[in-house]
Amino acid sequence: MIELNADIGEGCDDASLLPYLDRVSIACGGHAGDAASMAHALRLAAGHGVAAGAHPSYPDRAQFGRQALAASASDIAAWVTQQTEALAEEAARLGLRLAHVKPHGALYNVAARDAEVALAIARAVAAFDPGLLLIGLAGSRLVAAGQAAGLVVLNEGFADRRYQTNGRLVSRETRGALLTDPDMAAQQALAFAHGETVATLDGGRLRIRADTLCLHSDTPGALKIARAVHAALNRG
User: Is 117 helix (H, G, I), strand (E, B) or coil?
Assistant: First the structure.
């Protein structure tokens, strides 16, 4: 069965989501998060037997990491390394190990289409710990860069976001970008799980191969969405 993941440690009600998840990506200082929130999120994940990984971003708390910053490949590699290391150190204090890295927000979206940014991230992860998985938008340049760097990659789909016909996510600033209806999110999740097409925002159809599905903790009604998606996938 396809797995479910969520981005946590961003100031939302994470504890209520954990029973429905297989994997979490924890904010580690770029767009949100500090030592206390990272430790708390790691403990939550461990308590539920959920795999935990780093969620590095552009260092931009003011915009929550959702605006791209002008940066060199070396800047991006340094940010990914520093933030992943911060979470790894908190994990080590708790006797835990990280499982993956998944970029956040604008960094994730830029890496999906920009080969240089994607390669900077993939090389940084491989240099830090080649045993970490790399999560990227399904079929994107980040997935390709991770494979080229020798990493195991997970193609990611989204249960609570709408897609463009080119496979990219619809910008959050666009009306209808978020799927906040639990039944609609569950239907989209089932389509991913069964290898079926999903509806794009403009009314088209898109087939995406996904290994893991993301639910956002800050999407309105996140808990209801998580329950509906989990129940639908478990019914098959």
Answer: helix
CATH number of the domain bearing residue 139: 3.20.20.370
3-state secondary structure of 170: coil
Q: Which residues contact 169 (CB under 8 A, 6 or more apart)?
A: 109, 137, 158, 161, 162, 163, 177
10 — phi, psi (to 5°)? -115, 20
- Cα(21)–Cα(227) distance, integer angstroms: 10
Q: Taking the complete model, does pTM exceed 0.85, yes or no?
A: yes
Instruction: Give the number of domains in the chain.
Output: 1
Mind listing the pLDDT tens digit for each residue in 79-108? 999 999 999 999 999 999 999 999 999 999
Q: Are 217 and 14 in contact (CB under 8 A)?
A: yes
CA distance 168 to 147: 19
**Residue range of the domain that includes 105:** 3-235
Could you read off the pLDDT of 15-50 as tens digits, one per residue?
999 999 999 999 999 999 999 999 999 999 999 999
